């Protein structure tokens, strides 16, 4: 917890990167609190738990950014506790603390994307339910008490109404654990799985049935894509990039390079911990070959890969599952620790399905998928590697030296990472913004433009007045106490139907929306770049027709700036038809 406290202090109020996704997370719960109905009045692509939970927090504590971030801190502490308890199934206290410190740094507090102010609170809450279900599954494997399965089933059900991919990972994990333990005892298999499935279904099915009944099939399934159907081409394009299937051969090459990094690191630990001739003959050439492979692939990948070994995680996890399954098959009873190792590896592989060929090293998305894999990395370096070397050399002293060398290497790496992250937080998040509903330090590349836009809203509009922000950035409305009257808060290309675009146009024509804010938010990751030019051109044409540019917010005042320019800006347009 000292690492958590230190990183909290150095990153204080520097967790939010305004504009991308953040506006939806701030403003959507407030819209629900004010009586709007999720999905029908406010478009949303995830299940309903998180926005209504955050709306309840607003009702109790008030609508303010601090409320969301306090909730994020509590959730991050809970994740840290769960990860430590999971790590203890494999590691000693000191090693578990080291693995938890890695999770705190690479998942909870990585500056490129943290868990206190996440891209989606649905992912944060789903992660908690999933880790809780994993811990209960591990407890079931130790005692075979079915009450643990019932608890896991409850958490699977909650994950299913929060973010489905976490429920799927939990379901796969429980199923894998029961099969691993009972193999061909089909009666026991079916009975134990039913103890987890029943509470999960009792929670999830009524919620989805109610949504389909009261909101309607078309909105839930076809428009909001809750069952991953009718996905627009932009989301298919985005997900193909995330999984690595857009360039599968190139992704596999990067996985091989990441494996080379891991092998080189382990060989280096072996050379540090045991310099006997026998070990040198084995580890020396391996270290040289792995290093050469890494350098070559790193050069080939360029900026597409940061050199992190986590890209090779699927290979490691599959290997662990195969080895542990065979070990269980050879023995009458399970070897010490093998159920936990198999179960954690099963969860880790299942949760990585969405990024299977392109695992990120933390950040906005990786932070939700990596915690248990980082535990396994620590196990690999501090437990499995020394055991393998002892088996090779037959010398117990090698094991102790290697554990110390591995522990020291990981600890020094984490210390250096903490220092680098602390500097990045203080250097990059340096623009202070104080608004009615939030106090934060924004990235300096965007802070000036956002602050100028907030000041403009406060001086030129009245509290509660409607403003329009395209293609996203409704945090401008939330932070100033204004409102956005449109169903879609994030205009991803293709996500808004032609009918919704027509309704948005009618709203701009009929409702007295005096100011429109167009943010330099390129959507390249969704296959198009500029709002109004490359997608939603009818809405863009209406803005050109009925509004005039009155201010450019940001370091540049050039009115010719277009979305996709290297400098960040926000263009403010004023209606030519609304009376002043």
Give an account of the 3D structure.
The protein has 580 residues and is mostly helical. It folds into two domains: 2-426, no CATH class; 431-575, no CATH class. Helix content is 64%, strand content 6%. The protein has helices spanning 2-10, 22-33, 49-61, 65-87, 93-108, 121-143, 146-160, 164-182, 186-214, 217-223, 233-243, 248-273, 277-301, 313-330, 338-351, 363-369, 371-393, 396-428, 444-460, 475-480, 498-510, 537-546, and strands spanning 431-435, 438-442, 468-470, 515-519, 547-554, 569-575. The strands form two sheets. Strands 3-4-6-5 form a four-stranded mixed beta sheet. A two-stranded antiparallel sheet has the order 1-2. Helix 6 (121-143) runs antiparallel to helix 7. The relative contact order is 0.11.
Question: How are the secondary structure elements laid out?
Answer:
Blueprint: H1 2-10, H2 22-33, H3 49-61, H4 65-87, H5 93-108, H6 121-143, H7 146-160, H8 164-182, H9 186-214, H10 217-223, H11 233-243, H12 248-273, H13 277-301, H14 313-330, H15 338-351, H16 363-369, H17 371-393, H18 396-428, E1 431-435, E2 438-442, H19 444-460, E3 468-470, H20 475-480, H21 498-510, E4 515-519, H22 537-546, E5 547-554, E6 569-575
